Amino acid sequence: MTHSSETPFINPAQTWNARFAKDGYVFGTEPNEWLQRNASMWKPGSRILSVADGEGRNSVWLAKQGHQVDAFDISDVGVAKAKRLAEDSHVGVNFTVATCDDFVWPQDHYDGIATIFVQFADPQLRARLFGNMVHSLKPGGSLILLGYTPKQLEYRTGGPSVPSHLYTEGLLREAFGDLDIQVMDEYETVLTEGDGHKGQSAVIGLVGVRR
Question: How many CB atoms lie within 10 A of CB 47?
Fold first, then answer.
């Protein structure tokens, strides 16, 4: 799931349900390129969590790679579409409808966590979310993250227009101080992820391993 509102959502579940109720898949059905490029670090059969998974494009792709995948999203409409995508792809994903705070974060449980364009979170929620992700990784488990940087405000091809929701290298290094950061890459790319992410974009990617 990602975010393209002018202001923080007053009712996030209602907002995302309305968006995902439209025909087709808002962000397409193909996995995010950053995730696809880096996920080879996870051995087949790994236990992976896809955070705020939306309509399932990333979780279903991870399941196709032979992983045991959990995924959650706040939108029951999005999760229903994700389940259909998994069925059509003949893979199993353990889907849950939950907020980032309500999801049950098992300690030292996951070999990997994917968090792709999860930028609806204000700084307080983001701090709790990032802390929970680190808490749920096994020692040696790894996080793959991608988000928009402040330069994205110039492009407006997706993502939030709320500056505090955007990522910088300094913010990510501070937030993930308990990880060994193996990759930190700030770059520009042309995204073609449905109608939700389309065009020149300014992003930052991180790969980190829990100590």
Answer: 18
